[in-house]
Prior knowledge:
This protein is mostly helical. The protein has one domain. It is built from eight helices and no strands. Helix 3 (27-53) packs antiparallel against helix 8 and helix 6 (100-121) packs antiparallel against helix 8 (140-166). It is elongated and about 60 Å long.
Amino acid sequence: MYPEPENIWQSLEYSGLGTSIAESAWMFPTIETIHVIALVTVVGTIAIMDLRMLGWAGTKSSITQMSNDTLPWTWGAFVLAAITGGLLFVSKASSYVINPYFLWKMFVLVLAGVNMMYFHFITYKTVHEWDVHGTGQVPVMTKVAGILSLTFWILVVFFGRAIGFTLGIFY
């Protein structure tokens, strides 16, 4: 039915799970739909936080309170997006790993993660000094983190969408 796998990507793609998703009339589109909904939730909740960090929206709420309200949604949706993204990947692994848009999406996701970690472990440590319901002076590094985050997540969406239009043309 399928040729002998030559590499790890083909092994994933030709696995029972990979072929089930790829060959099913409903599995891939259902998983992709859930992936998109989860990603929209991730990007939406992150954008809410980023816009607050920049002082462009939600300034009646403290950054701490907004973070407490959005972070559970962000992480829950991110986990769901990662699981569904992994399932989509398994179904066409060989095509994804040679697609430059997929590779760029993964690279930008790493940058977004590094930006988030730097913000949470360095900049956010002093939040109690500047987080006052829209009246505190937000540090420049907080604003930089917000701009970078918005930029990275817009690029993740762009590259992710480009994958769908270019899958299978990079052989």
